[in-house]
Design brief:
Elements: H1 9-28, E1 44-48, E2 52-58, E3 67-72, E4 75-82, E5 101-108, E6 119-123, E7 126-132
Antiparallel strand pairs: 1-2, 2-7, 3-4, 4-5, 6-7
């Protein structure tokens, strides 16, 4: 025999509120329980021209020696470390929101590229990568000969 359950709108609202709180904490609060502190990746933009793929990654405060860029089997990996400044014993911190630690970001490139010709430039906290396309994947115009 089926049991009838009475619908409780207050309980439904509380469940939704709890879900929204959990979503907010996991997305925006760096030290929330269950949030992996020290695990982050820089935001990046990937665009394409006829000649190359262009990547711009936000790495504020990092120097070139803090970054490592590798390309292997069609996967470009940007890794590095954001170091925490020395904490002063005379200061009482009320909030620490900046993230520290190692990061790694891998991007699979959609077509064959020339890995030996990748160029990297760090400018105003933005890492610019120019990844040239291989000759065989560049668009070509083919002329039609009349015989």
């Amino acid at each position: 025999m089926a049991t009838l359950m009475r619908w409780d709108p207050v309980q439904e609202a509380m469940t939704l509120r709890e879900a929204m709180n959990r979503l907010f904490e996991e997305s925006f609060v760096p030290n929330a329980p269950g949030h992996n502190v020290g695990s982050f990746a820089p935001a990046l933009d990937l665009s394409e021209t006829a000649e190359a793929y262009l990547i711009e990654a936000a790495v504020p405060g990092l120097k070139a020696e803090d970054l490592s860029i590798t390309f292997e089997n069609g996967v470009l990996t940007i890794s590095g470390e954001v170091r925490q400044s020395e904490e002063s014993k005379e200061r009482n911190y009320h909030r620490v929101e900046r993230r520290y630690g190692s990061f790694s970001r891998s991007i699979s490139l959609p077509v064959t590229v020339r890995g030996d010709a990748i160029e990297a430039k760090l400018e105003s906290g933005v890492l610019h990568l120019n990844i040239p396309k291989a000759e065989e994947v560049k668009p070509r115009k083919i002329t039609v000969n009349v015989s």
